[in-house]
# Entry
Amino acid sequence: MTTPTTTRLLSVGTGLLLLAGLLATLGPVPSYGERAASARKVVTVQKDKRIVVSWKGERKRRVYQKSASVPGIGAVDLVCRPNSTQVRIRPNSRSPETQMWMAKFETKGGKDVVAVKNVRVYTYATAADDGRGGTGPKANEGLNQKGSIEDFQKGNAYGVISQRPSRAQAGLGAPTTPITSFKLNWWWERFDYPGHQYCNMSLTLHTDTPRQFGLNWHGTTEGMAQTTSTTTIPGVGDAIVTCEPGSNTYDQTVAFRPAGNKPETSFLDYEYIQGEGDVDLHVDHVDDLDYDPVTGLLGPVDLPRNGMMRLWVSVNGVKRAYVLSSYYVVNNDQNPALNLCEIAATPLP
# Structure
């Protein structure tokens, strides 16, 4: 005879069997590392987004600021006021390590100059930081050349916005957050003459995760396990980033393994932009690096230790432009936990 208690036990047993079957169908719960790897598969392709700040005189209401979203990261602001000209990054959180690299081109002292800037928002400056060395929730790069904004100024810039885990955490290898590139132009005049002032700024943003690549590691232990990152890029082939920790002769390079049945027709143009000063001294351009039939690669070429690159990869007759930011410390033997490598690359708008 079936009692109420027996019925309840049968129901519970049946429920457990159904749950076990469901879990078997779903498979094992992914670990943290597997979830991070899965995040790399998120596809974000954003049509170029352009914001413009433009005003003159005092006849109409002025709009001094425009803002745009940066996928997966937060927002960027373009500001042009008579007392403030800047581009500003506002991440959704300052817990990760957020960077906005830019190469600014302008005329200064009658010379064409460039300055590479890295604007950061973070909680932990290093693995040894207790959290009190962090920044505020936003950061900016000013476009004026002096403390008081000039009566007239113009220039242009390009750059890359990227994000990775805090420096107090593992870098997790290839970037898991969308990387966004940008181009910026500015022109203002008659700022010394209220009522006659004029400003025009434009910012174009581009996000394309299937074609981004890079590498992040924090601390020599992780760096020894995550020395290389290989990303397959549609229409290009494999992008290979190598960043080896060590104080002697180690590699920090980028290379491409071109796709297609005629890799020998591929070539690579690239340039380094580092530091600040005359364009002729701080921009180093190299044309027509040929395909190596022995290694099957374009490159490898060295990464800047603290700077930017532009790369033009030509595969199957199609040339694609990339911007890359690179910062690494690999030779801190006394405190290897402070060694790091942070590389981000994505197509230019």
About this structure: Helices lie at 4-26, 32-39, 220-225, 279-282. The longest strand covers residues 45-56.
